[in-house]
Amino acid sequence: xxxxxxxxxxxxxxxxxxxxxxxxxxxxxxxxxxxxxxxxxxxxxxxxxxxxxxxxxxxxxxxxxxxxxxxxxxxxxxxxxxxxxxxxxxxxxxxxxxxxxxxxxxxxxxxxxxxxxxxxxxxxxxxxxxxxxxxxxxxxxxxxxxxxxxx
Length: 151
Known about the structure:
The chain has helices at about 5-15, 30-35, 50-65, 90-95, 135-150, and strands at about 1-5, 20-25, 35-40, 45, 70-75, 85-90, 105, 110-120, 125, 130. The protein has about 150 residues and is of the alpha+beta class. The chain folds into two domains: about 1-50 and about 105-150; about 60-100, no CATH class. The two termini are about 25 Å apart. The model has no long low-confidence stretch (mean pLDDT about 85).
């Protein structure tokens, strides 16, 4: 499993000059998974928690044990039109899911990357994951050289 490395992402963002925006996503599935996490105007737009793996594991365990229902009973003072048959989305889900990108923290098959966009509209893309790495070092280096210049 390759998980997003939010610590590395923050280090890259914080040490890069002339940066306009930064996005994280899965390289092989970019159009579905990419999410902006930082921009020059607003700073960080997504929480990049250092302990996202622990947050995800806790979330998975609670879901597995049916301790985190998707819907809960709406408060009595809530208007019926603001509910779904008297229920609302469980706000406790946000504690977990706001830390994930597209409801995931990694992939068994795709590669988490960070894409940087600069003031001159150029882009650079870098690996940005922890966990499983390729056993073939030459293949890894070759892919890194190709992906670094992705536009």
